[in-house]
Structures are given as C-alpha cells and as structure tokens.
Amino acid sequence: MLIKLTVSNFKSFEKETSFTMISSNKIQGSKGHKVELMTSTNILKYAAIYGANASGKSNLVEGFRFIQYCLKNTVPVEAIELFCKNSKNNINIPSTFEIQFSIDKKIYAYGFSVLMKKREIESEWLYQLHQNGSAYPIFEWEKGAKPVINNKLGIIGTDAAKVQTYIDDFDENSSFLFLSIMNKGKKYTSNSKLIVFKNVYNYLIKQIIVCTPKTSITNFERYYDEISLNKIAELIKSFDTGISNITIEDTTIDEISKEVPQPILDDVLEEIKKEIEHTSNKRIRFSIRNEFSFYNLEYVNGQELRITTLKIKHGKSFYDFKYKEESDGTRRLFDFLDMLLTNLSGRVYVIDEMERSLHPKLTKHFIELFNEIHKNDDVQLIITTHESSIMDQDLFRRDEIWFVERDANNVSNLYSLDRFKERYDKKLSKSYLEGRYGAIPVFSTFSFKEE
Asked: With contact defined as beta carbons under 8 Å apart, do 209 and 347 qualify?
C-alpha cells in the first residue's frame, strides 16, 4: 500500500513536500477506511485533494508519473523544464522524489534525485524501514560512484556474479536508474535474494495506476465476450446513464480507418502480424481505444482476424448507439469501471480531475460504490477534484481531505484538513467555499475603461 510521496524542486513544489496516507490517531470514525500496517500505524484507503485551478494538484499527480516514466525509460527530454522556476537558483538544485510503500507487510522507501537541466541522476536509494524507526539500506549510489548493495542481503553464488556484472555495466551511467537496470530483461527465482528488486519495481510500475483527464483505466479483456459485458452493463445502469445493455458487433478494417489514424492502425496490424509469426499463442488480442472509438481485434489460430466494436442499447430505443454517440460523462465512466470490477490487493488508483464531465451526484455514487465493493480490500483511491459537494465527512475522514494552495511566491503548499479543528457535524463544503481552509480562487477586480 502507498504510505507517502515526497517531492522537492518539481514544477510548482519548491521545498520538500510530503503527501501521506498515514491515518491520524485523533480520528476514530470510519474504521473501514484504514488498514493496519503495524502496531499503532494505520494506512488510509482514500484521499481527496482540493485546490484552485493552477494550484498544483495535477503537479502532485505528475510526481507519480515522473517516477514511473524514469523507471520504465530514462529521464524524459522535457525534464529540463520541470524544476521549480520560482527561484533563479533552482535550475542548479537537484529535484528529489521518494515514495514509501508496503509489500507483504514490509515497508520500503525508494527514491532518487535528478538534476533536471542536464537530465542526470544524482543519486538513488532503496531502504527497508522498520517500526522502531531504523532504516536498512538495500542499495545506494551517487553519481560518479558504483551502486553499493548491502552485504547483509546475503547475495551469494550465481546471484553475486550477476549483481557484479550489472554493477560493472552500470558504472558512471547517469541517465538510467539502477532499479531499472536490475529489472530490464532480468529473471529471478522466487527464493533469490535479488527478488526484492523485482518486487519493488513491479509495485511501482504495475500497482500504482495513474489516470489523467486524457487517459483511461480499462481492462480490454472484459470487452471480448458477452458474459463480462453483461456485468459491465448491469454496473453502468446503476449510474442512470440510460444504458440498458452492451454487446459486441463485428465490423471491418474500413470502418476503423474512418476513425483511427492510419499510422496507428498500421502499427497495430503489423504488431499482430509479428505476434502470429513469432509466438505460439493460439489467441492474440489487441484493442484500439481513443476518446470516441472502441475497437477490439482478435486472432484465433487458423481463423481470419475478427474485429468488433461496442453496440449500446438505451432502454426501449429501436436503434442501437455507437460508443462515440455516448456523452462525455458516460465515456468517462467507461474509463473508471475497471476500478470497480478488479480486486488486486495493494493496488493504488491515482485519478486527476475525477469529476470531469460527471454530475456531482454521479461522482459521489461512484465513490460510494468503490467504498462498498472494496470495503474488505487493501485497495486505495486518491483523487484530485474541485467538486465541493463530495467534501462530506460521511464520505471522507478529515485526514483524507487535502488542500493545495499557491502562496505569494507562486509556490504550491500542501496541507490536510486534519490541521483544522472541526466538529464531526461540520458542513465542510460550505466552510471550504467560504474560504476557511484556503485553496480556492481569489479574484481581483476588473473593469473596462471608456475611451
């Protein structure tokens, strides 16, 4: 589970800023909103982050995306512009990222620092943290030196030889992360002492799911057969979208080419061709999804390529509807349905601007459904939002509500509602809009002058 994210000198965050999911000991209600990690330490399952436009909410979400991108690739080209530009000296100061999380009741802290203007990693570290406050280093390295792996890990035999080779290859490599090198193309047995590198990497890449207003969270496997589509239809009907049924319908390449750019379609078809030629898979599936289109391509050994799309029924309507004919809000719901249908322990969903195109009551209904479906699961939901109507103590604990506000120097500051002494029956949304907690737009006067 996610415990904490800390960033510094990144976009609008200048000083070290931490977002934490550790629960407050002062709040006793909503016990189903927390999971016990260790004695006297509980981790929250939900968080809602509020703030005015351009306050820095999305920049916090970008912190997760930046960590993942660097791990999967290298420091991105655009990083040269991602340091905090509020101070002249920040261009020469490394930006830092650290994320704390738990895997199988063990707590880890992984982080790195990078000099954005040169796209160079300055340092990287991985620690295991203990309840008594001590930290056990798994590996550390700084630019100009080789990575150092703790001898107490007990790496011996062929594993020791492998590690030495990886370290030698990594020497003075300042553009890639060592944790990436220890995973790309590497295989470890379950009893290997090196498995910790795989477990940490997989958690950061696969368990933290980030969704921006332009991306979706969709398990395309659910859209190939009628049984799973029936479940999706039943679920989406509860949101009063007018949809009564969802099926799949055969279509053609010509139809796809009308809505999908030809280069993208060519790439998908070429990829399918390679899969057919170089693998023994009897079934190959690809999906093409954009804002208005939803197509599935399926090849079963020896048969022609089958192409399907969604066919949507509304009540007693005589004609069916295409996916692109649905409203922005309904298509946004399709982006999120997998969060309600999937139960993977430890998964963290980070959703930026969750309420985009959704009615306030629909947003609230989704969160309530998520709470109910995952009430016994170690699944976390973190959202950024402007929707004040869901700032409700029946929905979120006070320590689950956060605010981001820019100060006079245009620097983002992050703080929790828990620092305010509020009654349990307080109407939070009213107090927020009245400015009690800050993090709202402050308008200046403006008038047209006559010539």
From this structure: yes
Tokens of residue 54, six digits: 């351009």
pTM for this model (two decimals): 0.88
Neighbours of 96 (CB within 10 A): 17
pLDDT reading at 450 higher than 70: no
Q: Is the pLDDT of residue 194 over 60?
A: yes
Say if CB 200 and CB 206 are below 8 A apart: no
Q: Is the pLDDT of residue 214 over 70?
A: yes
Sheet holding 243-250, edge to edge: 243-250, 306-314, 294-300, 283-289
Whether 407 has a pLDDT exceeding 70, the answer reads yes
Report, as an integer, the average pLDDT of 340-362: 89
- Into which CATH architecture does domain 1-215+344-451 fall? 3-Layer(aba) Sandwich (3.40)
Spatial separation of the C-alpha atoms in residues 263 and 285, rounded to whole Å: 19
- Going from N- to C-terminal start, the domains of the chain cover 1-215+344-451, 220-341
Kind and range of the H or E element at 383? strand 380-385
Give just the sign of the alpha carbon dihedral 230, 236, 238, 240: negative
